[in-house]
Amino acid sequence: MSSSVRPWRDIDRRKSRQIMVGNVPVGGDAPITVQTMTNTPTEDVAATIDQIRRCEDAGADIIRISCPTEESTRHFDQITRASNIPVVADIHFHYKRALEAADKGAACLRINPGNIGSSERVAEVVRAAKANGCAIRIGVNAGSLEKDLLEKYGEPCPEALVESALDHIKLLQDHDFHEFKVAVKASDVFLAVAAYQGLAEAVDCPLHLGITEAGGLIGGTVKSSIGIGSLLWAGIGDTIRVSLSAEPEQEVRVGFEILKALGLRTRGVRVVSCPSCARQGFDVIRTVQVLEERLQHIKTPLSLSVLGCVVNGPGEARETDIGITGGGAGKHMVYLSGVTDHHVQDADMIDHIVGLVEKKAAEIEEGMTDAGKADSAVEAAE
């Protein structure tokens, strides 16, 4: 059933103008992009490139790399040339790092213009960005608000974050620079969401969403899902980064799960599974863990239901591409396109499901290729 007949699922995205981060559009009607950040020492070029590769495999659209020292930008061009996705240079205080990164292939500079220094230094960064076709991300963070704003408001609050963002935006606009996106992050979900809501009403630029310092894999995923998810549900946000104390490829996977849950992006296998109970005909928890691990290489969007018994299993299986429900005596029912198809023995189940998913993904990809060929043939005939 299409979302057009499910109005309760429609998300009306905020109208933002579009910018380019390398070859990736951000804002406007472009898909919401998923970002992450490397945690290797940038000076270690090989390790950084290796981590970028893992993030690319996980589906990252954009990667951010910290540039705190002159040594970190010395071989930055090797990294940008090796990366298959646009690289954002993370700059905090020293404006020369921004100039170096822009000259060495950065697609975007993440800065706080107010931290760069004088207006002349901001002008230099803008000139470098313009000369190299770089976008700029203004990164406002509740943990590093300007002293005058803390004195004015007494504590980090939504109004302070928005005012900081608007001040930084003006610094760029005063230099006739408009290819920017903005983040107003906080580790407090309520603070971050309120700040983004206020900023969304004040500007038309793309917004980069995130709950900063969210925590570990479980806690950080929950906080990020609540904060980022509620904003996306309200139509706010053009690119996201899930900040976790976990490997960056995990951030990417969680980001895509948030987008998939809201129907905003589809990538890889969407697993529908039960929490398991005494009725289960097989070990649902272990099965799902193994399947998620073994199916990470699948990029084609498709759905898989894994239910331990026949109470809800058949109903869920009707809504997924492939499904399995637990049966008695170690024999389980497999559903294909919502229809009962055959049984599989417990010992063969995981390998069998992986094989079915891989086959289905290949069929979908082949169908997409055939559709593309058909479209090309029609265009040629016309």
From TrEMBL:
Q: Which UniProt keywords apply?
A: 4Fe-4S, Iron, Iron-sulfur, Isoprene biosynthesis, Metal-binding, Oxidoreductase
Tell me the domain of life. Bacteria
Q: Where is the IspG C-terminal domain?
A: 271-358
Cofactors demanded by this protein = [4Fe-4S] cluster
| SUPFAM superfamilies per record | FMN-linked oxidoreductases, Nitrite and sulphite reductase 4Fe-4S domain-like
Q: How is the cofactor bound?
A: Binds 1 [4Fe-4S] cluster.
Question: Which is one GO molecular function term here?
Answer: 4 iron, 4 sulfur cluster binding
Provide the transmembrane region boundaries.
Answer: none
Q: Which GO terms describe its biological process?
A: isopentenyl diphosphate biosynthetic process, methylerythritol 4-phosphate pathway; terpenoid biosynthetic process
Report the InterPro entries cross-referenced here: Dihydropteroate_synth-like_sf, IspG_bac, IspG_bac-typ, IspG_C, IspG_TIM, NO2/SO3_Rdtase_4Fe4S_sf
Instruction: Please state every residue range assigned to the domain named IspG TIM-barrel.
Output: 16-255
Record's catalysed reaction(s): (2E)-4-hydroxy-3-methylbut-2-enyl diphosphate + oxidized [flavodoxin] + H2O + 2 H(+) = 2-C-methyl-D-erythritol 2,4-cyclic diphosphate + reduced [flavodoxin]
Q: What does it do?
A: Converts 2C-methyl-D-erythritol 2,4-cyclodiphosphate (ME-2,4cPP) into 1-hydroxy-2-methyl-2-(E)-butenyl 4-diphosphate.
Quote the protein name from its UniProt record.
4-hydroxy-3-methylbut-2-en-1-yl diphosphate synthase (flavodoxin)
**Top-down, what is the taxonomic lineage of the species of origin?**
Bacteria, Pseudomonadati, Pseudomonadota, Alphaproteobacteria, Sphingomonadales
